[in-house]
Write a structure and sequence with these properties.
The protein has 478 residues and is α/β, with parallel strands linked by helices. The protein is built from 13 helices and 20 strands. It binds nicotinamide-adenine-dinucleotide.
């Protein structure tokens, strides 16, 4: 029997609001192309209601002790773990990724709630020695206020959870607009928070036409902080809107991650890890390793191993047991990958694996490896955000670092080497917010997640993650 898909709602002021006579957009299962649901779009009046609710919710939540806030967040983590299998099925239905990846993602989202529950209890101020004995000087941290958050479709559980958990732990209220392509997962997270006892209005979930919602929320005087995960072009638009309204914004944007494979690396491990991590989430991950630069003496041997590992991946419906790589999530990504591959071919690149859409229902593209890609090919500049890797040779470490740092992106970078000296040098000189040496798994709650350069600013995990939801206040008292 087909897995049923949850009914979709808006969640405003503690009320689950169904579509009624609202406009909707269709939610598709990318593995079949079939419509599985309709997500209601918030009207202007819904957005106003969400803003008023977030304002009132903030007044309640900021006065709730961090100890009690932590109880709600920890309970949310428990509920997400209890419900992980059911939520993961919804996630795979609407997003496409393999079920085991979806389960891992939901459990990781629970970890974020638990982590920030505890971080909220460690929001320390400090006392600063004064210049006069009768003066007492204290530095306080306070919640910044209601947050407008925008999350994408590629990690429909982790990206909303990181934002919501950190903001709530700090004492903020939130209005979140998750991706319209994957609404059920975000709603399941909201349901867990509601069931865990979050007071009404502290979290509100809306969907609709992204530009209309972001404009409305960012311009509202109620909103004091903006957080966005998505593409560089949309990040620029939201940063400009937030700038006009003088509101701080955290941006997690795209990447074009370089990988440096040195001749002294364990090539089997590198090929295995890179094939697994390149095609995880069907390559629709901002950290995805994309430009794989290999020292010339081992270039052909690495390429053979990488191609073999890639061709061994099992592609299929994410709900089918054994599937390792699911479909891409929407028609936009199919068209983007098709255009990048066609352009690279026309520029003289060699297709070493894949290169074509798979002839079956749904949005399937073969895991693709391009070699001999000239510098002017579009894929050398544009983030593929899909199942597409480039492999290129390099001669010296200086050349490799220059190529790695050539693009304006600065999210993730990787290196494979057995030399501590090489590892130290590339860690120091790669321009990226996150660097993996001899491994590629970097999304965990206790570590800061974020990029530099055009990949954005601010961090969403670790001890840093809560800071952007806090104001600093200085009190001097005689
Ligand atoms: P897109 O640029 O159309 O949208 C990116 C995301 O931003 C989507 O989730 C979309 O719903 C949202 N969005 C668009 N306009 C918005 C607005 N005005 N206000 C608020 N949110 C808005 O691209 P796409 O085709 O959906 O995704 C592909 C591109 O997005 C990739 O190139 C990739 O760089 C980027 N992306 C990055 C991440 C990440 O984790 N950093 C996640 C998803 C997408």
């Amino acid at each position: 029997m087909a897995t049923p898909y949850d009914e979709l709602f808006l969640f405003i002021d503690g009320e689950w609001i169904d579509r009624r006579d609202r406009e909707t957009s269709a939610v598709l299962n990318p593995a079949t192309g079939g419509v599985i649901g309709h997500v209601p779009h918030a009207r202007q009046a819904d957005l106003e209601r969400a803003l008023q609710a977030a304002d009132r919710g903030f007044a309640v939540w900021r006065r709730t002790a961090a100890y009690d806030r932590a109880k709600v967040l920890r309970r949310t983590a428990e509920l997400l773990r209890e419900r992980a299998d059911a939520i993961a099925k919804q996630l795979t239905l609407e997003q496409g990724k393999a079920l085991h990846e979806a389960q891992y993602e939901v459990r990781s989202s629970a970890d974020y709630f638990e982590w920030f529950a505890e971080e909220g209890r460690r929001v320390y101020g400090r006392t600063v020695p004064s210049r006069r004995p009768q003066v007492h000087q204290r530095v306080h941290k306070e919640p910044i206020g209601p947050v407008a958050a925008f999350a994408p479709w590629n990690f429909p559980a982790i990206t909303p959870s990181r934002k919501i958990a950190a903001a709530l732990a700090a004492g903020c209220s939130v209005i979140i607009k998750p991706g319209e392509e994957c609404p059920a997962t975000a709603l399941a997270i909201a349901r867990a928070l509601d069931d865990a006892g979050l007071p009404k209005g502290v979290l509100n979930v809306v969907f609709g036409v992204p530009d209309q919602i972001s404009r409305h929320l960012i311009e509202s005087p109620v909103i004091r902080k903006v957080s966005f995960t998505g593409s560089v072009p949309v990040g620029r638009v939201l940063a400009a809107q937030a700038g006009r309204a003088l509101k701080p914004i955290t941006l997690e944007l795209g990447g074009h991650a370089p990988v440096l494979v040195f001749a002294d690396a364990d090539l089997d491990t590198a090929a295995h890890l890179l094939a697994a991590n390149k095609f995880r989430g069907t390559g629709q991950i901002c950290l995805s390793p994309t430009r794989i630069l290999v020292q010339r003496s081992v270039y052909e041997s690495f390429l053979d191993k990488f191609v073999a590992q890639t061709q061994a991946l099992r592609i299929g419906d994410g709900l089918d047991p054994g599937t390792q790589v699911g479909p891409v999530s929407n028609e936009r990504r199919i068209e983007a990958i098709r255009a990048l591959v066609a352009d690279a071919r026309a520029c003289g690149a060699t297709v070493r694996a894949g290169g074509e859409r798979i002839d079956r229902p749904g949005l399937f593209w073969q895991p693709t490896i391009l070699a001999d890609v000239p510098a002017h090919a579009k894929v050398m500049h544009e983030e593929p955000f899909g199942p597409l890797a480039i492999v290129l040779p390099f001669d010296s470490i200086d050349d490799a670092l220059a190529e790695a740092n050539r693009l304006p992106y600065g999210l993730a970078a990787y290196a494979f080497t057995e030399s501590a000296r090489t590892a130290m040098r590339v860690s120091n000189e790669l321009e990226a917010g996150m660097i993996g040496i001899n491994h590629a798994q970097m999304i965990v709650c206790e570590l800061p997640f974020g990029g530099i350069k055009d990949s954005g600013h601010g961090s969403e995990g670790g001890a840093e993650g809560i800071q952007s939801y806090l104001n600093t206040k200085f009190i001097s008292q005689v």
